[in-house]
Specification:
This protein has 21 helices and 22 strands. It is α/β, with parallel strands linked by helices and about 650 residues long. Strands 14, 15, 16, 17, 18, 19, 20, 21 and 22 form a 9-stranded parallel beta sheet that branches. Strand 4, helix 3 and strand 5 form a beta-alpha-beta unit. It is elongated. It starts with a strand and ends with a helix.
């Protein structure tokens, strides 16, 4: 699959960290993952195997989420926001993803609703519609007005396939923090917690107090209290890991009168340091809580509660209720209260025996495999959407491209007689891809030629004479089968070519015979060159001297059963087999625009963009039937390359 994850972190880097962990999990599972980040770059976020697209970054000052700050330090203007939307949509168009994941939106980031909605609506409008998924943490902060909740739920109901909740309801279900209703309840998919940190070595011993508070200035109050406590009792072995979003002069002020190495920048080995500490002092963000649960380090939690924030307080209370942490309320935070809690933790009995979550003796056994489960959920949803065959085909095309191998295809459409809405729809789908349209000479209306004049990529062939069945009852239908005398067949074929030359544009018509129902008597096939034909496209039979031959074997319609779309998995499997087989002979796609129902049109609308893959070469019928034109072969067409050259 191709996965696009859109995230904008405005305060700390937790949202970006979690989104990056998911992107890495998709990449590790063999999928192509693109992470579009709209916040400031975060140097410690890992992107192994992930392509990053950086939007013009936004941030906030303090906790005012209504005032977005642009890259220049001033309020984000219309030009910046327009540039962000344009890059989002360009990334969508270039990637053609199988799933689009919006982090937090529509449950949050309402100030960026225009760009998120532009992305989601453009994704839904794509011919090959991707899954549209929201990604949220275990606990959300509900808005201040019920109308905003209603708006979020309406967007989920109308636009989204599912909401990925990265938590475990055994600890905290989403409705503990957000008013879940019937519109979204059925779309919730709990993934378990997204554990970003990875394994850590078991420490030989624990000592010291490790203080961390995210990457933003929101943790400054905690750092100042910890620095004050460390000045009173430096013997406790304090280490303060200060985020990269805090200025150097502030870092220096925190370090004043403290032993060297007490205050340092945040490090990538934070989890290892935490595992070796006697006590952790931190806020209670999503990633911090996971680090504590995995390492089992006794914790003092100072949940961030400025403004209307309730997320960290609720998470901290859940951990404290299980005896895994002490809470120092932010309003009561001072060097003295923090030092008192630290001394209790160092000298007293911990609230509970330190243990990792995930099934240890007496442990809660919560799911910490949120990355793996998220990938599995999206894969299963894509399969249920009918994407399994598409995934196999795309993988086969990717392998062909990596090996430098071309996958040749060509396209034939039968039964044209006049300009019709169905023909318009066919030509719109073709979008300039070369196509051979087989027209019925005895039924041609002048509107057909007028409609095709100037239409790029279109060639015409002779589709029998009148598309009349002359087979006896009980036999397969055929107009030019072995049921009539050869002389009659020859005369009808000669008349068909003459009518086609009289009624169809000469610059479009190829002297190529396409027998109705793809059936032709062998002796008539041998006679075609003498009748003025230079090409044949049918089914069965071998080469004929004097004829260029190319058959279209991949018919999308189930003529013997539903008369609707053939089994799409069989069609996609045939294309994938062709891509993997390495044959130089082009596989022919066969359509019948006048007979298509909604299922056939929808399948083609999803398939054709995938076949714009760099490995695919669309063969022009004038090339396949070169003697019918001028004997000169034409270069195969890569639709993606042609469109790139066209700008």
């Amino acid at each position: 699959m191709r996965i696009m994850i859109a995230v904008t972190h405005l305060l700390g880097a937790g949202h970006l960290t979690r989104a990056a962990a998911l992107a890495r999990a998709f990449a590790a599972a063999g999928h192509e993952a693109v992470l579009v980040s709209g916040g400031r770059p975060a140097p410690l976020v890992r992107l192994d195997g992930v392509r990053l697209v950086q939007l013009p970054p936004l941030r906030i000052e303090g906790i005012d989420f209504t005032r977005l700050i642009g890259p220049d330090g001033g309020p984000a203007d219309g030009e910046t926001l327009a540039a962000r939307r344009a890059l989002l949509l360009d990334t969508l168009a270039a990637l053609a993803p199988d799933a689009v994941i919006t982090e937090l939106f529509p449950f949050g980031r309402r100030g960026l609703a225009k760009e998120f909605l532009a992305l989601v609506e453009a994704a839904r409008a794509r011919p090959e519609r991707p899954l549209i998924l929201a990604s949220v943490r275990d606990i959300l902060v509900p808005p201040d007005r019920p109308a905003k909740v209603d708006e979020a739920h309406a967007r989920v109901a109308a636009l989204y396939d599912a909401v990925l909740v990265h938590g475990d309801p055994a600890l905290v279900p989403l409705d503990a923090s957000w008013p879940v209703d019937a519109r979204i309840a059925g779309k919730l998919r709990y993934t378990g917690y997204v554990d970003e940190g990875g394994p850590h070595p078991a420490p030989a011993r624990r000592d010291g107090i490790l203080v961390a508070a995210g990457s933003s200035a929101a943790g400054l109050g905690l750092f100042r209290a910890a620095a004050g406590a460390a000045r009173r009792r430096p013997d406790l072995g304090w280490r303060l890991l200060v985020g990269h979003g805090i200025p150097d002069d502030t870092l220096a002020a925190l370090s004043a009168d403290l032993p060297p190495g007490t205050v340092m920048r945040a490090r990538a080995d934070y989890r290892d340091l935490l595992a070796a500490a006697s006590v952790s002092v931190s806020q209670c963000g999503y990633n911090t809580a996971l680090d504590l649960l995995v390492t089992g380090t006794p914790a003092i939690l100072v949940p961030f509660e400025a403004g209307r924030e309730t997320e960290q307080r609720l998470r901290a209370e859940r951990l404290a209720a299980l005896g895994l942490a002490r809470i120092v309320p932010e309003a009561a935070l001072s060097p003295d209260t923090l030092l008192a809690a630290a001394l209790d933790a160092v000298d007293g009995v911990p609230p509970s025996s330190p243990r990792p979550w995930g099934g240890g003796p007496g442990g809660p056994g919560l799911a910490l495999d949120g990355c793996t489960r998220t990938v599995a959920i999206v894969e299963e949803m894509r399969r249920a959407q009918g994407g399994d065959g598409f995934m196999r085909l795309r993988a086969a095309l990717d392998r062909a491209a990596a090996a430098g191998r071309a996958v040749p295809l060509w396209w034939r459409d039968d039964d044209a007689v006049a300009a019709t809405p169905a023909l318009d729809r066919l030509l719109s789908l073709a979008g300039g891809r070369p196509i051979l349209i087989a027209a019925i000479p005895a039924g041609v209306d002048p509107s057909l030629g007028r409609r095709l004049a100037g239409e790029p990529g279109v060639s015409l062939a002779v589709h029998g004479l009148a598309h009349a069945n002359h087979a006896p009852p009980g036999e397969k239908p055929a107009e030019f089968g072995p049921h009539r005398p050869l002389a009659t067949l020859r005369e009808d074929a000669r008349t068909a070519l003459a009518l086609a030359r009289g009624h169809l544009p000469g610059d479009r018509l190829l002297p190529v015979f396409v027998p109705p129902w793809n059936r032709i008597a062998p002796d008539l096939a041998e006679a075609l060159p003498a009748l003025g034909y230079a090409g044949l496209s049918a089914a069965g039979g071998g080469p004929v001297a004097g004829l260029a031959r190319a058959d279209a074997a991949l018919d999308v319609i189930d003529w013997r059963g539903t008369r609707s779309l053939r089994d799409p998995e069989a069609l996609l499997s045939a294309l994938a087999d062709h891509a993997e087989g390495g044959s130089d002979r082009p596989l022919g796609l066969l359509t019948h625009h006048l007979a298509h129902d909604g299922a056939v049109w929808a399948f083609l609308a999803r398939l054709l963009p995938l076949l714009d893959h760099p490995a695919v070469e669309w063969r022009d019928p004038r090339d396949l039937f070169a003697p019918a034109v001028d004997g000169r072969a034409r270069a195969p067409i890569s639709v993606r390359a042609e469109r790139a050259r066209a700008g």
